[in-house]
């Protein structure tokens, strides 16, 4: 990660940063992460990329991914986290039709327990199997996010190869409320102001 991105990540970790600055810096970081993703996938395969965004925090990725892959259909999964258990409950899913060449890219800024990633991965894998009659090749699944906690990152590796996980940083742990430490707080709350 280049020095400018390190500074922006450092800035958004500051819980006193204004919402305006948090959004501005997050947008630049999201652009950077999408560029990093696209360096890992040959340009000839870009038409096969199907981004899957997890409501609502991952909306930070919507503009950069749709501008850089203007012909790619985009899927959405809505998961609501129970603050006591950290287990997410699905309330929405709308995924495009997959084919055997599809490359699934799951976008979610924060990877804490990996529960949201696991559920989104399961949702995409089930849809892929229904559409193609085959199981998805784990090498055709990517994850893009800002931060992970080490425990969640280790769980993610069971689903996705390490070279297909694009992150700005992996922080050491989760706190008692399942937030990444040191992390940056609740990304969605900080980005949307509620």
TrEMBL record:
The Phosphoribosyltransferase domain sits at 49-193
Query: Sorted alphabetically, which Pfam families does this protein's record hold?
Result: UPRTase
Check the UniProt entry and state the signal peptide residues, or none.
Answer: none
The protein, known as: Phosphoribosyltransferase domain-containing protein
């Amino acid at each position: 990660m280049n020095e400018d991105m390190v500074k922006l990540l450092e800035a958004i970790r500051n819980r006193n940063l204004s919402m305006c600055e948090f959004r501005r810096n997050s947008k630049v970081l999201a652009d950077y992460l999408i560029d990093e993703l696209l360096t890992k996938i040959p340009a000839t395969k870009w038409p096969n990329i199907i981004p899957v965004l997890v409501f609502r925090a991952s909306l930070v990725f919507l503009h950069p991914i749709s501008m850089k892959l203007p012909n790619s259909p985009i899927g959405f999964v809505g998961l609501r986290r129970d603050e006591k258990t950290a287990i997410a409950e699905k309330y929405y899913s709308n995924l495009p039709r997959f084919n055997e060449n599809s490359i699934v890219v799951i976008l979610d800024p924060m990877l804490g327990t990996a529960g949201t990633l696991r559920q989104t991965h399961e949702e995409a894998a089930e849809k892929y199997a229904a559409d193609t009659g085959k199981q998805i090749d784990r090498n055709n699944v990517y994850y893009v996010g800002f931060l992970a906690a080490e425990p969640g990152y280790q769980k993610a590796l069971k689903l996705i190869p390490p070279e297909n996980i694009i992150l700005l940083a992996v922080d050491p742990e989760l706190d008692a409320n399942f937030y990444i430490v040191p992390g940056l707080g609740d990304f969605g709350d900080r980005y949307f102001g509620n």
